Amino acid sequence: MSGGPAVVTRFAPSPTGRLHLGHALSAVRAHDLARGGGGRFLLRIEDIDGTRSRPEHVETILRDLGWLGLAWDELSFQSERLDLYTAAQGQLADLLYPCFCTRAEIAASLSAPHGPAPVYPGTCRHLSPADRRARMGQPHSWRIDMARAVERAGPLTWHDAYAGEVIADPLAQGDVILARKDAPASYHLAVTVDDAAQGVSDVVRGVDLFDATHVHRLLQALLGLPTPRYHHHPLIVGADGQRLAKRHGAPALAAMREGGADGHALSDALRRNMLPAGFRLGEA
Ligand code: GLU
Fold first, then answer.
1. What is the model's pTM?
2. Active site residues
3. Which domain holds residue 120?
4. pLDDT at position 49, please?
5. How many structural domains comprise the chain?
6. Of 124, 158, 179, which residue sits at a domain end?
7. Residues of the chain with pLDDT under 50
């Protein structure tokens, strides 16, 4: 028997569309890390976005993973775990404030609305208690007062298999939303709560989610949750070096499957970082 704690990984797709090659890469890597460590591989369907999540996409995801030869040990749905997220939100209540801004208002108040990651300008943080009370009947999200949260949590780091020891800088992400207007929870809160509740030891996901980890690390500290190891792997890019988009004509896994392609062969190719013609692995 090995002495170390078991490796637990997860693949956590949002059923808002069909999976593509990048998802397959994440799933294969998460699966193999667990299997290699005698651990468990979890499949978590991140279906809290009721307006965009579709049951038919869930069906397709399950089929795609089977086609890739990836068996999961446990299947969960975030839509069935909402109480956990509400409880976590309650624990953070004194750091949250209601935000009444619409997307259009936020875009208009930013000097560079098309920049990489627009940071909320903090408009509703400055509302008086009386203004807040008067507007509570209007649709609102809940944002975290990041400056106060960072002060409370103190300095934080995490370990990333690619980037090494990372100093968390959640302040750069601004006052992110922890409870949405149009959904019962936010991505950040749900992911952080679930990774801890499900005993995930290693989070394997694309480097496009690296910035989110600054927020997740902060939430772990505030909620008293453990910090997993992170593996933010490079994304699959087109021949032009840009991340996969429609113009690259990257086929959905379902289309490859339905076209008779061999899913096990694709998994094996991804294990060797061999990609179909026209695609390659980007920078870490
Ligand atoms: N549900 C997220 C997505 O599909 C991934 C969450 C995660 O791996 O942390 O982009």
1. 0.94
2. 246
3. 94-179
4. 87
5. 2
6. 179
7. 1-2, 113
